[in-house]
Design a protein that fits this description.
- The protein is α+β, with helices and mostly antiparallel strands and about 270 residues long.
- The chain is built from 7 helices and 12 strands.
- It has a single domain, classed as q2cbj1_9rhob like domain (Jelly Rolls), CATH 2.60.120.620.
- A hairpin with a 6-residue loop joins strand 7 and strand 8.
- The N and C termini lie far apart (about 45 Å).
- Bound molecules: 2-oxoglutaric acid.
Length: about 270
């Protein structure tokens, strides 16, 4: 199977046809929409995240933080999710509020035919240029999230995110492969699905050049991975919100902020 990336199918034309959206999501394991999210709100989140990043020395001095120009000298090396910067992002009011925005809530209550529940376990991620060892490997979110498999991840860039900035790629239809074995992956310190396994599936990897306002969503068993940030100086800023039917099983970890254990704090939110 060739690793060449092909384009997502855009689902905007089905926005007035919920049964067709459900059918496509079931078949392909993902939906991709162009230009459906509130760009002003996304830019406010971007600014907030990058101002925090500037406070930790991630942003080049003399530049406007919202441009996301990397300083080249990260003060806190290691896995992004264990940094103080990440912990501060998780408390940003604009970031937290966006997970329940009307577009997502209406979309999911339609898709589920039931009330939608958004997880507190939100992720606001910044990746640095050329940090290939940190690139998210192929995995299924169910490995981390548990609870009901009817959980959907919403991956949202806070600015244009062309392939070279390292967007997200989805293995089309991989939601039908079942729950796959996740093995330790070098570099990220996390677990993932080996390339031989995704190659053997014969399925296509899809991605796109994301633009501000685009929405990618996928099922908890859909295999996905990040692309490398191959730019020389651009920070990639993206958001992840997870949503499930409110009556379904939910893991306690989804009801608190991400990586709670990593920061030595005990509060239950
Ligand atoms: O943005 C990334 O690097 C990883 C995102 C991801 O794996 C997810 O949204 O589930």
């Amino acid at each position: 199977m060739s690793d060449r990336l092909q384009e997502f199918e855009v689902s905007n034309a089905l926005l007035n046809n919920v049964p067709a959206l459900r059918e496509r999501l079931k078949e392909k394991g993902y939906l991709f929409f162009r230009d459906v999210l509130d760009k002003e709100a996304l830019l406010a989140i971007r600014r907030g995240m990058l101002e925090l990043a500037a406070g930790h020395g991630w942003v080049r001095e003399g530049t406007d933080p919202i441009d996301g120009i990397y300083s080249g000298s990260v003060q806190e090396p290691g896995k992004f999710e264990t940094t103080r910067l990440y912990r501060e992002i998780l408390d940003l009011a604009t970031f937290n509020a966006f997970g329940r925005n009307p577009v997502l809530m209406l979309l999911y209550s339609g898709l589920f035919g039931a009330e939608a529940l958004e997880h507190r376990r939100r992720i606001g991620r910044i990746t640095t240029p050329q940090s290939f060892k940190q690139t998210t490997p192929s995995h299924q979110d169910f490995y981390y999230i548990r609870g009901t498999q009817a959980t959907y991840t919403n991956w949202i860039p806070t600015g244009n995110c062309p392939r070279e900035l390292g967007g997200l790629a989805v293995l089309e239809g991989s939601n039908h492969l079942g729950f796959l074995e996740h093995v330790p992956m070098s570099g990220t310190g996390g677990r993932g699905i080996p390339q031989e396994e995704t190659d053997r599936s014969g399925l296509r990897w899809l991605t796109t050049d994301f633009a501000l306002g685009d929405l990618l969503l996928f099922h908890s068993l859909t295999v996905h991975k990040a692309l490398h940030n191959t730019t020389q100086e651009q920070l990639r800023v993206s958001l992840e919100y997870r949503i499930q039917p409110s009556g379904d099983a939910i893991d306690p970890g989804s009801q608190t902020y991400h990586m709670r254990g990593a920061f030595g704090e005990n509060e239950i939110l």
